[in-house]
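Good morning C.,

I know you're traveling, so I'll keep this short. The sequence:
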Amino acid sequence: MIKGVIFDVDGVLLNSMPVWENLGELYLNSLGIQAEKGLGERLFAMSMEEGADYLISHYGLEKTPEEIVEGLAKEVREFYSDKVPLKEGVRQYLYEFKERKVPMVIATSGDRKNTELALKRLKIFQYFQGIFTSSGIGSGKSQPDIYFAAALQLDTDPEDTWVFEDAYHALRTAKNAGFRTAAVYDQASDRHLAQIWKTADIYLPEFKDFEIFWKRASEI
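The tokens, ready to paste straight into the viewer:
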């Protein structure tokens, strides 16, 4: 039974990983500085504050860490507001859920304002009954709080609620909390692909064949 759906944003609805993988390069380019090869990999695992310190020490930037963090945040905001694309097939899934009167909400570890900017520009904001963020809830997706809060909004029980995620740790958390899980492929999660495949109730290499998904999900 599918009575409600909870969608992650980055890597599920939006093809947003390029901005995070290339954020340092984009920022340096805005200053007229050529980035070193592999900078994205180095910065990807860092917080913005750590990344700012790295850029100052390696590129001799005459800026404060706070100024650099603001500059990095500006690049991200502009990407979400102007450029980030939907993943192919997402719009059809949202339309089909709406047609079947299945309520949907957002649960994201990302920034609420950036999420709203992107969803409104892409004209899918209206599909969702609410947006829940890790910062707003007070815990990340290693804890199930955000999913329980979203289910309360949907007024559905976990066993009747499907969570769409791309990251292994988030899928595992939702699954262990009693939710049904649909794993959406994203290149950023390649290193955990085997665990993702084993954990999810349904694995989606891409958003296609909604009727097949609906039939399989309805039988679980």
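Safe travels,
E.
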